[in-house]
Amino acid sequence: MSRVLTDYWPLRGIRLTTPRLELRLPSEEELAELADLAARGVHPPGEMPFLTPWTDRPPTDRGRYVIQQHWQRLGTWSPQEWALELAVFHRGRPVGVQDMRARDFALRREITTGSWLGLDHHGHGFGTEMRAAVLHFAFTELGCLEATTASFADNPAPLKISRNLGYRPDGIARDVLNGRTVISQRLRLSRSDWQSSPRPPVTVTTPNNCLPLFGIT
């Protein structure tokens, strides 16, 4: 009997569904749509809310970066260090990317999240739903104990999402961007705070054979 791609790469079968969104790995055609989305912009011109210098890249380079990062994260995946980068779909069309990353997850049981939305899709509450989806997957399916994130101190939208989902301040980080120091607010969410905070409902489809890829036996 011939085998199919999901027999070797069961991550393809993961589906996270919220009231308005679906999160999953994209097809190659959908990945091209995500690249087009990034090429059109992920934040207003003149702003720099991410350590990734989106504003400084020409549109074609922004799209190519999205494709290369997606392939790189799949190609370097191991149970000891992984990054699940899910395309976010609304009404069947991609609107952005939500990721979750971990090192030595089997021991640490901790993830870090990051995301972006196409500029046309800001202001609709998608950021909360897509983050809630991967948190639900991490805490309920993978046995996560802690989730972390970080946002520039002057970038209020993701900080508001984090507060609404129950994160607590976890110090600051200093980085260099375009020759200047930038300060990020680190935030941390424990399993107990996640369980006690309001959040959108999430439905998860997970192939049984995918857990070893996350370091879970």
- Reading off the top of the CATH hierarchy, the class of the domain at 5-148 is best stated as Alpha Beta
Mean pLDDT: 92
Gross geometry: globular
Q: The CATH topology of the domain at 5-148, please?
A: Aminopeptidase
Fourth-level CATH superfamily of the domain at 5-148: Gcn5-related N-acetyltransferase (GNAT)
Low-confidence stretches: none
The biggest sheet, with number of strands, parallel, antiparallel or mixed sense and barrel status, is: 9 strands, mixed
Strand content: 25-35%
Order of helices and strands, N to C?
HEEHHEEHEHEHEEHE
Distance between the termini: 26 Å
State the secondary-structure class. alpha+beta
Please provide a written account of the structure.
It holds the Pfam family Acetyltransf_3. It comes from Actinomadura violacea. InterPro entries: Acyl_CoA_acyltransferase, GNAT_dom, Ribosomal_N-acetyltransferase. This is GNAT family N-acetyltransferase. Helix content is about 30%, strand content about 30%. With about 220 residues, the chain is an alpha+beta fold. It has a domain of about 140 residues: Aminopeptidase (3-Layer(aba) Sandwich), CATH 3.40.630.30. It has a nine-stranded mixed β-sheet with strand order 7-8-6-5-4-3-2-1-9, with helices on both faces. The longest helix has 17 residues.
